[in-house]
Amino acid sequence: MKVVVVEPLGVAQEKLDRLAEEILGQDVEVVYYDHRETDPRKLIARGEDAEAIIVANQPLSGEVIRGFRKLQFLSVAFTGYDHIDMEACREKGVVVSNCAGYSTVAVADLVFGMVISLYRRMRECDSVIRQGGTKDGLIGPELEGKKFGVIGTGAIGQRVATIANAFGCEVLAYSRSRKELPGVRYVELSELLQESDIISLHVPLTEQTKGLIGKEELAQMKKSAILINTARGPVVDSAALAEALKSGQIAGCGIDVFEQEPPMKDHPLYHTPNTLITPHIGFATIEALQKRAKIAYENIAAWRAGNPQNRVD
Fold this sequence. Notes:
Number of domains: 2
Radius of gyration: 21 Å
Shape: elongated
Largest sheet: 7 strands, parallel
CATH topology of the largest domain: Rossmann fold
Order of helices and strands: EHEHEHEHEHHEHEEHEHEHEEH
Strand order of the largest sheet: 8-7-6-9-10-11-12
Number of strands: 12
CATH superfamily of the largest domain: NAD(P)-binding Rossmann-like Domain
Strand content: 15-25%
Mean pLDDT: 96
Oligomer: single chain
Structural class: alpha/beta
Low-confidence stretches: none
């Protein structure tokens, strides 16, 4: 059987070779590519004779998937799979699995890095001290006692809630399905928006969640509140968010995801106050990238054994 890794996974080649041999065995041919390919024809050429393909966040259109003539299994080394044409996969009978769980710790870490950076004005403090200044005008709030709103209580949302509890926050949650979570109070979205000091988004991108946070929702938030988005860019209306920040409707935001990545140079959040933006790095830690590579191979091994795991199709 031939497996093709169509884009880099952020893990050293020696480590990938070792994982492949340990998990898939020596009877599997694995081919790696060290750069992304955006030309559909060249991308098809990479995997046209592979039975299994590993992809991270490289978009795979229907044209490309149909061009993979022998494809039977797609291991998505990512949690989300909205960049994959699932209809084309179903049409070809391709089984699709993702790597759910690999970035849970990493994303939750970034959420609190953003919250603390915004609350304690870390960037401003760094700039001021380099210029011989003092803390004057840079004193921010503590997390303890704040109401922390978590929208979406999957694995990442649950970890964020647990950490927020550890900081002494009161945790409010809104989710499609409710779970029994210690220290978490489920409320309706409007109540969460109105009461929370910090709101963190952890929902997948679907037709229902696209534009979930728009002008109307932002208007319900406290003027002192901050919004954190490490989920998917289109979950938030960026233009409405930019206006809310400029007008003082909300106090700040931390954004790791955008509608288009990398975002265009004229993106509205490039010019807004109290805005911390990062290049979709929430999932990307040394440990998380190694975890996802391992899961991506384990997905193939499970499929070969007739028991697909992490199946999303």
